[in-house]
Amino acid sequence: MDSIPATRRTAIFLRHETLTHDMGSFVFQTRDPAAFVPGQFAMLDLPDVEGDRAYSMANLPNDEGLWEFIIKEQPGGDGSVALFDAFPPGTELALDGPHGEAVLNREAIDRPIVCIGGGAGISQLISILRGAQADPTLNRNPMTLFYGGRRPDDICAPRLLQRAGLADTVACVTAVSEPTADDDWQGPTGLITDVLHRHLATWPDPSNCEYYFCGPTPMTDAVQQVLCRGFAVPESQQHFDSFG
Ligand SMILES: Cc1cc2nc3c(=O)[nH]c(=O)nc-3n(C[C@H](O)[C@H](O)[C@H](O)COP(=O)(O)OP(=O)(O)OC[C@H]3O[C@@H](n4cnc5c(N)ncnc54)[C@H](O)[C@@H]3O)c2cc1C
Questions:
Q1: Region(s) of the chain under CATH 2.40.30.10
Q2: Cα of 161 from ligand 1 centre, angstroms
């Protein structure tokens, strides 16, 4: 991949859309094109927040300079408070990017695409799936998204696939790890990594897929264990970012 040099430039906040009880889409605009590869992230220097925060782009590169991020509200988090507590449209900030190497592999033309995530990991995965769908050399490959959450109202993946125009092309497997007796949850329960393991065990050749995953470190570690130990997936076919 020819890498796109990261630059720091001014971005203007355009709009916020509520997606779930704790996640939203935030769109910023820069004067120059939004040049990145699906899977990359940018660093935002939020007003009155010490240090930059990394957020993965959820959209595709574009000449209009639009950068969309799906962001999860972390209770008490400085960036979360700044963004989710009435962040006014028109606010200017510094956007530094693109960064990251867990990007869509356009050379894997014969491999099914498997994305795995939870929480805000969906942002990067939606961009990857959008990129694959828009690429004529990749979009005939089967695409599957595994997405897990604690409770049913965390499970935003089917709606976000619909919103991105991906619902007809991407198979979606969801799981909830902590359903209560009051939840009307009919789907699989448990960790998404266990559900992934059970599914891959029924696939003809899980070692010949291209895997993309994103989320907290315990989740990305667990996915790696499943892929390496369970199914001998070469590391070159595993693309991931850990939130730390
Ligand atoms: C490569 C990469 C891509 C990422 N992409 C995304 C993305 O697309 N979307 C997204 O939502 N996130 C993403 N993240 C995570 C994001 O960068 C932030 O780390 C996250 O949003 C939390 O930032 P914050 O400022 O809200 O919380 P922070 O202020 O950084 O705090 C983090 C957590 O620690 C807790 N905390 C803070 N201070 C204390 C304290 N003194 N004592 C105890 N607890 C404390 C907070 O309550 C919060 O839960 C990404 C991270 C990486 C590394």
A1: 7-99
A2: 24
